[in-house]
Automatic annotation (TrEMBL):
Record InterPro entries: Glyas_Bleomycin-R_OHBP_Dase, PhnB-like
Domain PhnB-like: 3-141
Claim: Methyltransferase is one of the keywords in the record: yes
Domain of life: Bacteria
A molecular-function term among this protein's GO annotations: methyltransferase activity
Keywords of this entry: Methyltransferase, Transferase, Ubiquinone
Protein name according to UniProt: 3-demethylubiquinone-9 3-methyltransferase
């Protein structure tokens, strides 16, 4: 079994994935736009039958994408393109290979975002900090972890 995060960027999905590709090395596995939904073109297809309701004017927005960051797969969408993403109650945990890489990731994620807890040394990592990126996603960044979580 696998559990994978699915993020709804409400209109900024492609921008977010591009940012993660540039700063975290994300690799896009696939990306489908609302206009590419094969069921949407069928005559008489309902929203339920087509698997989504397409917000007006969102044909070029991302209906579904899958990408990896390191060994982890994430999925995402523009959702209803409301412009108001809500990632409350969840953070993504990023364990870097070393302290310097952790600082680099933390600084990149914080650019245009908001630091929630500055990078510092803790009992569980040589470097740990919490930041909300410019898309509203909260991250916990660790570096120098002796016993990396599985």
């Amino acid at each position: 079994m696998q559990v994978q995060p699915y993020l709804f960027f409400e209109g900024r999905c492609e921008e977010a994935v591009t940012f993660y590709r540039e700063h975290l090395g994300a690799q896009v596995l696939m990306m489908m736009r609302f206009r590419d939904n094969p069921d949407a073109s069928k005559e008489g297809a309902s929203e339920a039958a087509s698997g989504c309701s397409m917000p007006a004017g969102s044909e070029d927005k991302v209906m579904h994408t899958a990408f990896t960051i390191g060994d982890s797969m994430l999925m995402a969408s523009d959702g209803m393109c409301s412009g108001k993403p809500n990632f409350a109650g969840v953070s993504l945990s990023l364990t870097a290979n070393d302290e310097q890489q952790a600082e680099k990731y933390f600084n990149a994620l914080g650019n245009g975002g908001q630091v929630q807890m500055p990078m510092t040394q803790t009992f569980f990592a040589k470097r740990f900090g919490m930041v909300q990126d410019r898309f509203g996603v909260s991250w916990m960044v660790l570096g120098g972890v002796e016993n990396k979580p599985a």
